[in-house]
Amino acid sequence: MAKSTVLVPCLLLLLAIASFAAADNGDGSADSVQIRLNCGASATDTATDSDGRAWDGDAVSKFAPPLGASVAAGASYQDPSLPSPIPYMTARVFDSTHTYSFLLTPGRVFLRLYFYPSDYGNRSAPDALFGVTAGGVTLLRDFNASQTALALNVAYLVREFSVNVSSPTGILNVTFAPASAAHYAFVNGIEIVPTTSDMFAKPGPTFANGGRPDPMPVRADTAFQTMHRLNVGGEAVSPADDSGPFFRAWDSDSPYIFGAATGVNYGKDGNVTIRYPPSVPPHVAPEGVYATARSMGPTPEINMNYNLTWILPVDAGFYYLLRFHFCEIQYPITKVNQRSFDIYINNRTAQVQMDVIAWSGGIGVPVYKDYLVVTTGSGQTDLWVALHPDLSSRPEYYDAILNGLEVFKLQTYGGNSLAGDNPKIPERQVGDGSRRVSGKKSAAVSAAVGGAAAGGLLAVLIGCLCACAVCRRGNKAASVVACEPEAVLEEPAHGLLSGPTKSSAFFKSDQK
Questions:
Q1: 259 touches 235 (CB < 8 A)
Q2: Rounded distance between C-alpha atoms, residue 397 and residue 504, angstroms
Q3: Nearest to 299 by CA among 59, 501, 68
C-alpha cells in the first residue's frame, strides 16, 4: 500500500511532463504552453469559447489528483450576458481543499480564474465561500462570488493574476479551500498564459510623491492582480484582438469618467501609422489601444478650469502600479511643447510636464510610464486619476491626452496576499446601470451608479464650480478648478487664465 501511494504521484508527474513536452512545439513561444481548463467538463470534451480559444475538460486531468472529493456540476441557469457557455456553464465544486498542479516553464504567467455564481445541484450560490492560493500567494480569501457579482451588477467574474513560477520543478499549485464545513468552493474555468519576464520590470515605476519622482523597483517575484485595463477613448478590445498571445481584455474607459466633463474621444488620423519603438514591444498593448485617445477638448478656457478625471474602484491597503499608455495620433501635434500636461494620482502629483512627443520621439510612436501609489485602510476605496494642462511651459495647446490605463494591485510581502474584502451590496440599486461593465471585460468591475438623478446633481455641481471659476477671474493667484471635491491638488497650476489661449481648432472630435 505504501508503494502504491508513492507511485501514483510519480506517475502523474511523468504524465504531466510527457504532456508538457508534447504541447511545446519547440519554438519557445508562449502560445505553445497555454492551458485552459473547462472545469467540470469531461476529460475528452474540448470546446471553443466566443474568442476562439479551445478549453479542455478537467475530469481525470493530468493537472490534478483524482477528483473523487469534488463534484462536476452544471449551472442551473444561463444568464443572457454570458459571452458563451464555455467555460461558465460547468463547474468543479469542492467540499474540501483541492489542488491543481500545473507543470510550467519557470517564469511569469497570467493566471485567470472564471466564476459564474449559480446554484449547482443542491448547493446554493450564496453558500460558496472560499479561498484560493497559488505559488505561495493568497489570491482570494473568504471570497463570495455571488455577493461580489451582485455588488458589481454583473453575472460572471474573471479574476486575472500575474504570478512568477520560480520553483526549479516549474510546478504551480493552485489550491481551492472552502472557508468552513458549511461552505463550498467552485471554479468554472482556469486559464494559464505565459508572459514575458519584463512585462512589469522595465522601465521600473516611480513613486507618485508630489512631483519629485523616486524610482521604486518591484521585486521580480511579486504577484499582481489586474484591477483595471482600459482602452481610453475607444471601444472595448476583446481578448482575441489583444497583441501577442496574452488574450487580455481591454475595457472602454467611459464608465469610469468622473462627472459631466468627459473630454472628447477620437481615433488616429488616416495617414498616421502606429510604429512601436524598441522600448515598447507590441505585446505591451495592442495597436487598437494606441490608435484611440481621450483628450480634454478644443476650448483652452474650459480646459484650464477642470481636470479630466477617472475614478477607479480598488481594494484599500495595497500598493498599486498604474501604467499610462500614450501616443500622439493626430496632426498637428508633431513637436515638443505643443501639448504638455500634469498627471495626478490620488491628489498627488505623479508627473509634471508630460509631453508625449518629447517622451516618444514623434507622432504615431507609443510610450508608456509606470507609477506606484499606496492606499491605506480596508474595504473598497477609489483611485483618482486626473490630467490637467501644464501652464508653466506655456505649450501651444492647453490640453491633455491619454490612450490606455492599467491598474495592478501588488501583493503584500509580509502576508504574501492579494486578497481584498468582498464588496458590499448596495442597499438600493438606482438608475440604469450606467457604470455596469461586463464581467468578461474586466477583472475588477466598477459598481453601478445612478443615471438621470446623479447626472442632474453632477450638472449642478459642474455649474456651481464654473460659476466659482468665473468669480475668481479677478484674483491675482488663480488655482486649478478641481471638479472632484476629494481630489484637490496639493499645489495650484501657475499662470492659470493669464497665459496664451491659442485655439485647438486642429482637434477632430467624434462628438457632435
A1: no
A2: 6
A3: 501
Residue 453 backbone zone (phi > 0: left; psi -120 to 50: alpha; other: beta): alpha
Q: CA 252, 385, 368, 192 torsion: positive or negative? A: negative
Number of H helices, E strands in the chain: 6, 27
Beta bridge partners of 191: 36, 112
Query: What are the start-end ranges of the H helices in 248-362?
Result: 287-290, 300-303, 356-360
Going from N- to C-terminal start, the domains of the chain cover 34-194, 206-241+250-410+450-474
E strand spans, 166-273: 171-178, 185-187, 189-194, 206-207, 214-215, 224-231, 251-252, 264-267
Which single residue is written with the C-alpha cell 486626473?
Answer: 386
Long-range CB contacts (within 8 A, 24+) of 8-12? 9/65, 12/62, 12/65
Task: For residue 374, list its beta bridge partners.
Answer: 319
> Hey, which bits of 68-178 come out as E strands?
70-74, 90-94, 98-103, 107-115, 130-134, 137-143, 157-165, 171-178
- As given in the structure block, the three cell numbers for residue 388 are 490637467
In CATH, what number does 34-194 get?
2.60.120.430
Average of pLDDT values for 295-311? 95
pLDDT of res. 67: 63
Single out the residue of 230, 390, 248 nearest to residue 325, CA to CA: 230
**Total number of residues shown for the chain:** 512
Is the model more confident about 250 or about 471? 250
- b/e 428-442 (16+ beta carbons within 10 angstroms → b): eeeeebebbbbbbbb
Does the predicted model carry a pTM greater than 0.85?
Answer: no
Amino acid code (one letter) for 41: A
Alpha carbons 419 and 312: distance in angstroms, whole number: 18
Which tens digit of pLDDT belongs to each residue from 384-437? Answer: 999 999 999 999 999 999 999 999 999 998 889 999 999 998 876 444 433 334
Residue in 304, 402, 315, 314 with CA at minimum distance from that of residue 350: 402
Question: Cα–Cα distances in Å, from 134 out to 130, 223, 259, 422?
Answer: 14, 10, 39, 19
At 338-385, the pLDDT tens digits run 999 999 999 899 999 999 999 999 999 999 999 999 999 989 999 999
Residue with cell 492579494: 418
* DSSP secondary structure code for residue 447 in this structure: P
Residue 403 grid coordinates = 490612450
